[in-house]
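Late entry, evening session. Most of the bench is empty. Finally got around to the prediction I had been postponing all week. Sequence below, unchanged from the version circulated by S.P.
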Amino acid sequence: MRVLIGRPLIRVLASQPPVPAMLTKLRNAVVRSGLPCKPIKFDPKLKTYKFTSDSSVQHIDASNNLHSPKLSGWFKGLAQATSSELVYDKNTHGHKQVSLVQKNTDTTCHVILDHAADTGEIVFTVDADALDEKPAAKQETQPDDGKPHLPPKLAKLYLDCRRPPASSKQLLLMREAWTYFNHQVFGGRLKPAHMRLMRTVGAERKHTLGTWSAGTRTLSIQPTTFKGPLATFVETFVHEMCHQAVTDINQTRDSGPGGHGPLWSAWMRKCGLSPNSFMTINRDEFMDTDEKEAYRQKIAEREAQRQKADEEQHKYRHMWSPQDGKPAIARINDKYVEGILVCPSAKDGRTWAFIERNSVYSNRFWRVPADSLYEWNGPPEDAEKIRNDSARSREQIRNHLQAKSDRRSQMKALRNIFGRL
């Protein structure tokens, strides 16, 4: 069945624009206040919206001015119901005019209040041209992928962190991001912490993007991290806040290397992050063109040095039975260094404390894997001299390692005792 609409009806429909949302809210507020109203009508000739009360109103005296207790109190209720600010205007051609300015969208609704003497109805008239209704700003939505994200305001601040003064902007972003994630992700249960920037190093030397120190309650971020993508910074920052959650919420120190134990892993999963994601970060994300070129050259030099060390390895014989105070040759950073063994630095004997020949009078030593130790091939008198010169240093290093092992055993025993309580 086809319905044909004539041109006059089309003109009428075209001349009736949709009712503005502000005006609809105003009428609903009037109805909720106890004053029944008729539907809103649009006058195309006068270009005004109008709606009237459904019956006469006895408790409002239209002869009163706009500042009378009855009218002012009623309009204040309307302003509160529509989340608007009430503004009194001067009388317009004998009518009483009130403006309602909506706060969140800056919409202004000029209402002319009139009283029909014959019917007792209250007439609300709004000029369509005077109805200044601005569309609400479109809110930027964050991706719903389950991962933490910064709000648009902080994301813009992150891009600004690369311009000077960078350090102050970076610290400001860290404080704002900590406050945001503490409430959005951790439920506001984290205690206040200090924010610090780590010492800036070249991207090719950077192994740590951030740290959490439970003793000083300090969250530190590497400044070169701000050169990378925003997602990497957010992941790094929340990574360190998960360490803080273990300290503040679980009130313990997580087991595992670097505190990356089951408690920390559980917090990472709660935040929507993978516990192993920090292992796959590409360093190229934090380098500019010059740093990338320098990093490639350094990698090429290290590779050439490693190949050279592999070629020279046949000159040395592997040490199968390391002993305390025995001269040896160790492969350190792809270089073969003469020195002397002190003692095992691990109970299983996989690593040994090793003193270089040029450092026999100091307490500095290397931890060298047992498979990187080779038999001494120098003159016997040199071996005896190294043994005598390093006697004092070896004794101090042994005492240091033994004291460290004792402290570790004591802490393990205390954890076992408190774990049973």
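Two things to note before I forget:
The mean pLDDT is 76.
The longest helix spans residues 391-420.
Will write this up properly tomorrow.
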